[in-house]
Amino acid sequence: MGRRTTTVVAAGLVVTLLLAGAVSYFASDAPDGLNKVAIERGFDGTEQEHDLADSPFAGYETRGVEGSFWTGSMAGIAGVGVCFLVAGGMAYLVRRRGSEQRSRTHSSSSGEPASR
Fold first, then answer.
1. What distance in Å separates the CA atoms of residue 80 and residue 89, rounded to the nearest whole number?
2. Is residue 40 part of a domain?
3. Which SS3 state, helix, strand or coil, does residue 51 take?
4. Tally of domains in the chain
5. Is residue 109 a part of any domain in this protein?
6. Per-residue confidence in pLDDT tens, the chain, 116 aa
7. Is 81 within the bounds of a domain?
8. Residue 108 placed within a domain
């Protein structure tokens, strides 16, 4: 990865972490679109707990952390970290696979047998 790409990725990660960690505190407490429609249509009482309801970051909060700012901020930062790792891993795999295919194509076009 070139220096310019690294700078852009690092800057994007810093901005995303700031938004998730600090600005998310100021998010509205009003129900989101799906919850609002459920309340308006009268089926909000049918809601059930899901399998991950007891997870450390369920409900956009961090279990065991006191204080409304930190509980949401840590959950947001953890979410950014997970997304960054998944996206970075996928990009690494795609890039690696692409370079392997290019090397096979290059070696087969030069008259040498392609390795398998």
1. 14
2. no
3. coil
4. 1
5. no
6. 789 989 999 999 999 999 998 888 887 777 788 888 999 999 989 988 888 888 888 877 888 888 778 888 888 899 999 999 999 999 999 988 767 777 777 666 555 555 55
7. yes
8. no
